[in-house]
Amino acid sequence: MNNEKMNQMIDEAYENYKTKTEIMMGHGFHGTLLSQEEFINKCKTDSEFSEMWGLKIEERELFMEERWKMADLTPNMTEFDYCNKLCDEHNVPTKLITITYNDIKTEIYE
Questions:
Q1: CA distance 59 to 98
Q2: Nearest alpha carbon to residue 102 among 31, 37, 53
Q3: What is the model's pTM?
Q4: What single string gives the DSSP state of each residue in 13-77?
Q5: Helix 36-45 and helix 2-26: axis angle, to 10°?
Q6: 1 pLDDT above the threshold of 70
Q7: Spatial distance between the Cα atoms of 63 and 65, rounded to a whole number of angstroms
Q8: How far apart are the C-alpha atoms of 22 and 80, rounded to whole Å?
Q9: Is the pLDDT of residue 95 over 90?
Q10: Are 44 and 30 in contact (CB under 8 A)?
Q11: I need a surface site. Which of 3, 27, 46, 94 has the fewest CB within 10 A?
């Protein structure tokens, strides 16, 4: 469900960007229209651009402790490697993606 919501938010932001940019091009703006992939990457890396279009995309790697908590593991000092291996074997997410658009925030774990 969250992936669906994330895609919907990105699609809506991109359509807004595309519509407004095409209108500006019709009024003499000489820029180029970014593809959706380019738009997403620019929102991730350019905070000014991201703010202009209201789409904020943040990605970060999860800490070991966060993964262990998701897997309901509480390792002692000698079990760290074993717990990390268990998390990997059971596809416990390694990344958190936070998307904010129009003041609506959703989080996705990958």
A1: 6
A2: 53
A3: 0.82
A4: HHHHHHHHHHHHHHTT----PPPHHHHHHHHHH-HHHHHHHTEEEEEEEPPHHHHHHHTT----T
A5: 100
A6: no
A7: 5
A8: 53
A9: yes
A10: no
A11: 27
